[in-house]
Here is the input.
Amino acid sequence: MSAVVFYLATIVNYFFIYNILAWGLNIQFGYAGILDFTYITFMAVGAYVAGVTSLGPPQPGTGVVYILGWHLPFPIPILLGGLAAAALGLVVGLLAINRLRSDYLAIVTLSVGIILYSLVGNLTNLFDGFDGLVGVPEPLNGQVHLGVNTYTIFYMAVTGAVMVLLWFVAQRLLRSPLGRTMRAIREDVDVAEAFGKNTFRIRLWAMVIGCFYAGVGGALLVGFVGAFSPDGWSTLETFIIWAILLIGGRGNNWGSVLGSFLVVAVLSEATRYLPAIPNNAFLEPALRNMVIGAGLIVVLRFRPQGLLPERKANFSEVRTAAPGLEASHAD
Amino acid sequence: MSILWLSIGFGFVTASVLALASVGLSLQFGVTNYVNFAYGSFLTLGAYFAWTTLTGGHLPLWLAIVIGALGVGVVGVLSDRIVFRSFTRSGFPLFYLLIVSFGLSLILGNVVQGVWGPSPQFFAVVSQFPLHIGPFLLTPAQLVIIGVAGVSMVGVHLLLTRTRLGKAMRAMSDNPALAQVSGIDINRVTTWAWFISGTLAGLAGIALAISTASFEPAFGENFLFIIFAAVIVGGIGQPYGAMLGAVLIGMVTEVSAAFIDPAYSTDLAFVVLIIMLLLRPQGLIPAQGKA
Here is the structure.
């Protein structure tokens, strides 16, 4: 098994996981217009819960301390990770979604992220603080007993299967009455209210489902990487998911696929061709992040709907019957 | 009892830093009607500009503070002119501006990381003997912070009430369309709002760096949610509300440190923010049409 195959399999695993994460954010923002500026925190909750439920009890003497340690078999930890993230999403949604302008929602989610970051870091009994979890068992490797390289390829099938399942759910939701109402709320809350929709409860659903996706993505990530610490979920990581969603095209799950392909390719590949800068080891990752930030701003400016725009329903007969009823863009 | 007095003294220092920061954020929000999520990076830039002027340029501290603050004012104007203005002119919806400012904070934060590196820096003025002032125990640097904040707040008050520019800002905050048809040059006022907002952010960043002993590339962004708490408690888009919110949040975070583990004292700012959002989301001094 050559190093190239191992390397490609690693990238494909990340690509699959980023797809899941981007679809979750798409359900929150692309479907329902919820500005979640701490999406990665929900991924982290999924990763931590999956980690501590698949690890055995903490061993005295190693200095690694965490809660639970249930040693549950695949796929229960992944499910629990998703549910834990969804539960946190419900709490944050109850606090923030009702009656607030979208910038308040962004402020509250961002603050929740910073608070949870410092709490997880300081409460070392919870998930081992800033040191984080290590040695999380690889899902199913207790049964298949594969080496590192072969397991990476095997794990592609695991993430791929979960991804396909979540793809169908996201696409089904998009076309369902619930998904249609979400998009109606995104376009104009007042109109949806006037049609008798409980906009608060429907946006809460979008928040919770999106967080479930984030949690599952995080659980798959921790099974793959085997370790997780607060370094893995800074604000930067939230921004990367946002960049995937918006560069690809919000409201369109295919757009998220294109976006995660582009961003993962940029993250892992493109910057290695930059000329080496002597005496400054910090410049290269910093430049990479600047490129992602600037790239997103440029795409938003010149192609605000993203590379693959949402396909909006075409009510041509309705429009000829009542001219001037163009969909307005509310925030 | 003396610990309580001490913590009230520190509360004044934190309130001063917060007042500078939250009035700057609120002023720009009032005029432009969108929140700048890159504001935390503005604080970081202020601290690094002043630090480089001080250690690299060997200039006196007061001059380094002035250069650092005005430098961030220029960064504010450039951010508006290069980035935000092209979105507002084309009538992009609100959420684009929020995401763009989020992206700008990523860019600025990484500029700091790339230029100055990730390791913490500190201002050499920190190690001074504290003075007894009444029941409080404060270093000369902390007294200067309180003084600078006080002078700045009076300055902002005079600007808003006594000058044409300040009155134009308040008019734009109340009703931008009406302000424009009344003959106010909204482009010029917006540019000034960004300059003043950036300058106050720079001052706040320097003050924060001096009062917390050390600073690193993420320190402004981590402070941002405390600024948000102060601004929302006071009433978003309201400079006077921001001052009130700053005093409240500053006192809560510092005085609580006398009773609970100081590691969690800033988390209390968040608790206050949530209670406020649930009970009175428009803030203590609400601004028309902003909540």
In short: The two ends of chain B are 40 Å apart (CA to CA). The beta strands of chain B are 121-122, 131-133, 136-138, 214-215. Chain B has a mean pLDDT of 88.
